[in-house]
Amino acid sequence: MKRLYIIGLFIFLFLLSCNKDEHFISPIAEAYLNEVVDVMEANSVNKNSINWADFRKEVFDNAGVPQNIEQTYQGIRWGLVMLGDHHSFFIKPDGSVFFGDPLECTADNFSTPIVPSTIGYIRINWFSGTNGSDEALAYVQDKKDQISTSDQADLLGWIVDLRGNLGGNLWPMMAAVGPILGEGVAGYYVYPDNSQVDWGFSDGSPFLNGNPINQLVNDYQLLNQNPKVAVLLDTEVSKSGEALAISFIGRENTQSFGSSSCGVSNANVGFVLSDNATLVLTVSNMADRNMNTFGGPVDPDVVVDNENIIQSAIDWIEN
Questions:
Q1: 49 DSSP assignment
Q2: What is the pTM of this model?
């Protein structure tokens, strides 16, 4: 009987040891979750308003008892939600992506409007390619050609149509609209420690932190400098599209029309993790040239629906 008891105890302990990993988080998974939360805590735009002890506990609670990195993703996804920026996301090593709580913004469709010959019109649509690519150079050249073709000595002003601009790479878009925007600092990225990095357009190129982005040049000069500019917005304008909208705030002879933008007026940076995944984290909010900080929607000066937006812009430019 004693021998059977010992054998039974041995079998019980053996089975317990086999199932131990199913009841406790593995060291690999624990280290990975801590790595991700550490990056969030050090860099999130909202890091000063988050209780990080509670945050870390919730991430681990939502992860359950992961035994490998793949099984930590549920906790990481919840962490992205709790960051509250609606912009951060996670790129797995295989290139697939998951988000936390992104804003989904849609707007009414519209066609290219007909405007009087005394008003220039340019639509700045979103662009996602790299600065030095053929696509980026072609994008800037196309907008430059449109501006130079529309420009004339008796022009009363310009309509810059940002509707539907979902964002992407700011710099080709900034280069495209630069001659109308004008020279100088147009906005800032503001970090949690209140440090700032400026952006704008100067000498034919966009710049960041005072450094020109030389791959992108639009050296066309308007016949009439500092024209009146009507900027058109809708709820699809987001991310870098919102940076363009902010760039015109505080500019002389400028008025915006339409509806509030999507509300993702902040900036992301990618952090490569130990397994070659990338945590793309929102690290700063946008501010206009007068240091008014956003982070949410950009509101137009004149709220107007899509049906009447063009006429409202024309009336303002003509008067």
A1: G
A2: 0.89
